[in-house]
Design goal:
about 140 residues; mainly alpha; Four Helix Bundle (Hemerythrin (Met), subunit A); two-stranded antiparallel ribbon; 5 helices; about 5% strand; elongated
Amino acid sequence: MGYQYINLDYLREHSRSNKKIEKNMLEIFILQLKKFSIQMNTFAEDGKWYLLGGEAFFAKETIRVFGLHEMANELHKLDHLCRKHSNNEGIDLSSSVAVPIVFDNETYSPTATREILEIVQKFSRVAEETLEEVKLALLDYE
């Protein structure tokens, strides 16, 4: 069966087509994907860029195993954006005023904030749709 997001070839290859291992990995992936999505949204809402970058770092390799290469590349970008501006705890993201914020003699652009939030929103959408695909894939293991 073809999927829009997931590709289970890598999983099958490295599990040597062991259905029990594949099923366990898919079940773990569901839990991880939910956690990544919740954590990233929470960190983004709270302006905790360093933590958000760390979550993106770990999530990108996990989702790559399941074939989400494009989203993994977005998370790589997110990680770098967040780490570059990790000293900005406490920014009010609800402000509609586009005023550059200065941290450690660097200007933190509202455009970067917007880009970070867009990637997090995209990840949330892709994660939700991926969860549905994984649940469908699990039906093949029953």
